[in-house]
Write a structure and sequence with these properties.
Strand content: 15-25%
CATH class of one domain: Mainly Alpha
Strand order of the largest sheet: 4-3-2-1-5
CATH topology of one domain: Arc Repressor Mutant, subunit A
Order of helices and strands: EEEEEEEHHHH
Helix content: 40-55%
CATH architecture of one domain: Orthogonal Bundle
Distance between the termini: 56 Å
Structural class: alpha+beta
Largest sheet: 5 strands, antiparallel
Number of strands: 7
């Protein structure tokens, strides 16, 4: 799942997308009503990319769990987060059978399902596709080519300056006394 830029803010309902930065925080836009609100540095912000759930082995990122729900529902809505506790448990066990039963609570499961349904309703539930990966590789290749051209040009300039007999410094300016 592509969850870049989507955050959860403690004390504020719903999910937000980061749209800008301020001196002491960020500007976020609500996914549901598109209102922009300032989020200050003293508020607790959690990026969905960084959140994971406890399992019996390694922790599982929320993006992978959301992908499992997406695959199970074929892109449709999941179970309602206000459903009966037994239904929520049964559905979650079908998605993540190796979750840690002592550390993952019903409230965590409900929050995950509400996030999934919110992302699905607003159209922000995006899979990382192969085209994105090829675009990323092309960007990396472009940056590598630009870096190579820059170093070649810089070394040619150094050779020209040094061949003329002019002494070239490394850009260090000496000021004052040591």
């Amino acid at each position: 799942m592509d969850l870049s830029g989507i955050i959860s803010v403690s004390g504020m309902p719903g999910l937000y997308k980061v749209v800008g930065q301020m001196k002491n925080g960020v500007i976020a836009e609500s996914l549901t009503d598109k209102k922009r609100v300032p989020i200050h540095s003293h508020q607790q912000i959690s990026s969905l990319e960084d959140i994971s759930m406890f399992t019996t082995g390694d922790n599982k990122p929320v993006g992978d769990i959301l992908k499992n729900i997406y695959d199970k529902e074929k892109g449709g809505k999941s179970i309602d987060h206000k459903a009966d506790e037994k239904q929520v448990l049964a559905y979650f066990e079908g998605i993540l059978p190796d979750y840690d039963k002592e550390r993952v609570y019903i409230s965590n499961m409900r929050k995950l399902f509400s996030w999934y349904n919110l992302l699905q309703e607003t159209g922000n539930l995006k899979l990382k596709s192969d085209s994105d990966k090829t675009e990323d590789k092309a960007k990396v290749q472009h940056h590598d080519d630009a870096a190579k051209k820059f170093t070649k040009t810089a070394s040619k300039d150094n050779m020209k300056a040094n061949s003329k007999g002019a002494k070239k410094t490394a850009g260090v300016r000496k000021t004052g006394t040591a």
